[in-house]
Amino acid sequence: MGRHTPVPAAGLDVRAAYAAHGAELYRFALRQLGDGGAAQDVVQEVFLRAWRASGSFDPQLASLRTWLFAIARNVVVDEARRFAVRPWQRHLTDGADVDGPAVAAADDGLVDAWVVEEALRRISAEHRTAIVQTHLRGRPYAEVAAELGVPVGTVRSRVFYGLKALRLALDEMGVEP
To answer: Are 72 and 64 within 8 A, CB to CB?
Structure first.
């Protein structure tokens, strides 16, 4: 009688998620791709993937919005790659005036910041502090070590293992490099 359709885990109301975040995801995809039809396809694919992977969604690890935007980012990258390989497939369907690359880059940066923030919440406080202070705030290792009252080598170790844990957290969230 046809293909077997995966049954999502209970708890994720896709209709409510679409009502809450569909328009925002569409605007994000439209700014990234500049094509209304492709943006609609992205939103459909985001909710299809969310529905299929709903069993892996854990509200303790990431907000629904962040999870959906992480999926959207991956779908937009896939679409952009498809357009790069087959540029003749790109058709502007609605003539929308998109703000251009500067706005798209700002949107992408905002989504990346949300995703990194969620991933940082998943790692230990010691690792998070070391990464935030040295990488995000650009402070020298010696200064951070003095403030924390630990040797510089300990800060370096926390950064090293913290980055490994951060990569794993991003992987668990479904974020592709």
So the answer is: no
User: Is residue 130 exposed (0-12), middle (13-18) or buried (19+ Cβ within 10 Å)?
Assistant: buried
Q: Each residue of 101-117: pLDDT tens digit?
A: 444 544 566 667 777 88
Residue ranges per domain, the chain? Answer: 7-111, 123-177
Which residue did the predictor score with more confidence, 157 or 77?
Answer: 157
Vertex 26, ends 74 and 169: CA angle to 5°? 30
In whole angstroms, what is the distance from residue 122 CA to residue 167 CA?
11
- pLDDT on residue 155: 95
Q: What pTM was estimated for this model as a whole?
A: 0.49
| Residues 54 and 10 sit within 8 Å (Cβ to Cβ) | no
For residues 19 and 9, what is the distance between their CA atoms, to the nearest angstrom?
A: 19
Nearest Cα to Cα of residue 132 among 112, 109, 155: 155
CATH T-level topology, domain 123-177: Arc Repressor Mutant, subunit A (1.10.10)
7-111 CATH fold = Rna Polymerase Sigma Factor; Chain: A (1.10.1740)
CB 23 within 8 A of CB 31: no
Return the residue matching tokens 């209709």: 15
Calpha distance 111→14 (Å, rounded): 21
